[in-house]
Each structure stands twice: as structure tokens, then as C-alpha cells.
Amino acid sequence: MGNWESYVRKVVPYVPGEQPQEQRMIKLNTNENPYPPAPGVIRALKEFDTDRLRLYPEPACKVLVDAIAEYYGLKSSQVFVGVGSDDVLAMIFMTFFNSKTPIWFPDITYSFYDVWADMLRIPYEVKPLDDNFQIVKEDYYGENGGVVFPNPNAPTGILMPLSEIEDIIKHNQDVIVVVDEAYIDFVTAVAVPTARALLDEFPNVAIMRTFSKAYGLANYRVGYMMTPVELANYIQTIRLPYNLNTLSQVAAEAAFEDQAFLRRTVSQNAEERAKWESLFDELNIHYYKSEANFIFFTVPDAEGLADAWLKEGYQVRRGQRDGWLRLTIPMAQDGAVMRGILKEFMN
Ligand code: PMP
Fold this sequence. Notes:
The chain is an alpha/beta fold. The protein has helices at residues 39-46, 62-72, 84-96, 113-119, 162-170, 196-199, 229-238, 246-257, 259-282, 302-311, 332-346; strands spanning 26-28, 79-82, 103-106, 124-127, 147-150, 177-180, 205-210, 223-226, 286-287, 294-298, 314-316, 324-328.
């Protein structure tokens, strides 16, 4: 028998939320958008010339990159588009996290960080959230190989103020600090605390964004990164030459173009989220004020509640923390039905 298995790279895999095949299941377990993408996306896909399928896609995603750069007041060379932000994350980890000192991220956070770190053999340490599930900025002072955290954090939905992000960056100028803004498009505050504001000031910041959430395009797998030019140049040296297929590019271009549609989706989400918060308050259910398209909450019998919803075709995310559930905010009609089930369950 050969010894090949000792040379296999073994990783505990990321377990994504289930993707049930039953049509009647309403999926509220992976923070996909319950609202459809902008009408321009459907139009663009209908008009798509299938003859282009023979050809490789345009490698630089130039139209999309230019649009993103212009919107955020950046040079195009500061924007990199990848196959979902999971791919962008992999590029970032591979390129910037090569120190022997552990990288740092929160203990309760996006559960792909440790998978990529294990896969790429990057040492890491997790920093516990405080009793209110907040990231403690002082925990990120000290020697490390890099820092990554989402804002808003997932699965809590809690938003960190820009001053604290800036403070973490100031204390980590020798490494790259990655701010994963997968859900920031959902934030309705007047001053959105995006790290975009810090890009001009600090040379070591990488911001990740995605079209999978607020833009409603999870299936097309489009994510992007905004950084100072120098960092983007490094990423360009290791990227796949053709990463994003043309349909994905076309769909994301059309989605990005319609910022008014995005704002409508975001305000619908906020309106529905508020209904959940007021019922949770009324029923004394412990939850965290979320700025994203999901809420993290705990009830005495979380499994029982998840089962009660599942029986009626609503699937929420379990297992992120004992006794807690994460619910993607559904559309109005489903929300009303689910809150009815919840009220009954709590009585
Ligand atoms: N970051 C966070 C915090 C997420 O929750 C997700 C989606 N699960 C991602 C990144 C990756 O999203 P995508 O690859 O679809 O862009």
C-alpha cells in the first residue's frame, strides 16, 4: 500500500446552510436575498448573446470594475473582482497572510475564515466577543500576522463604528487588516461606517464586498475587493486569468447600475427587520440589534422553534451557537406567518 494519504491536505470543511430541493421551502438559513435582483439584470440576461459562450470571458471584468471604482471614488486599479467574496477571501489570505505569527479574527464570526486558514496552513487565533457579542478592539492590539473581521459581524448582525475600525487599523500597521463588508449594503444609517473612508489614509486595508446579499445575485458568484493600488497589484499576480464568467459579469453590471432598486430592497429589509425586533421585544426574546438582513436570537427551545417553522416550510440556520438561531429576514407575507408560529410557540 502506498503512503499517498499522508500527503493529502486535510481540512475540516465549511458546512454551508442546506440547499433543500423542495420548491415550497422558503430558505432563511444562508442570508440570501428574498427579493429578486434589479429588473435590469433579467433584461440583460434575456438579451445575452449566447454566441459569447464559446469564448473566454473578459479577464479584467473591466466594465464592472470601472463602475464600482467610479461609484466609490477609487481608481479602477484599486478594485478586484472575484468569484464571490469567498474567492476574494482566499486570494487575500494566500497573498497577505504569510507570516508565521497567527492571524486574528473573532471567535463568533463567518465560519469560513478558519477553513481557509487551515487549508492554506495559516496559523490563527480567535478573539472572543464580549458578553454583548461585540468585537473588543483592544483584543486586536499586539503582534499578529493579519486581522480579518466582518462589519456588520455575522451571525450577530452587529455593526462596529468606524472609529473602532480605524483604531484597529492604527494598531496594526505592519499587517493587512481585512474588513469583510458582505452585509454593509443593508445598513440604513445616514453615515454608513464603511472602511472605504479609511482607504485613502491607510496603505494596509482591504475591504471585501459581495453581490450575493443585498444585490440578490448569490447564484452568480460575484464578490469584490477595494484596496490601495499596491495591494490590488499583488492580488493581480496570483489570480486566475479568467475568474468571472460573462453571465456573472453582465448580471453584476446591471445590478450595480440600479442603485435605486438596491435602496428599495434595503429599506424593505429594514422595515421587515423592525417588525421582528418589536415582536422580540414584546415576547422578551433576547436578540442583537442587527444592521444586516438577518437576526441572531435565542429562545429556551431553539431546536423546537426551528422545527415548528420547518414544518411550515421555513428553514432557518441552527448550530451557530447553542440555543441560538439565525433568521434571514423574510418578505412581509412570510414574516407575518412566521411570527404567528413564533407567538403560538412561545405561549
Ligand atoms: N463574508 C461573510 C461575512 C458572509 O456571511 C459570506 C456569505 N456566507 C461571505 C463573506 C461570502 O459570500 P459570497 O462568497 O457569496 O460573496
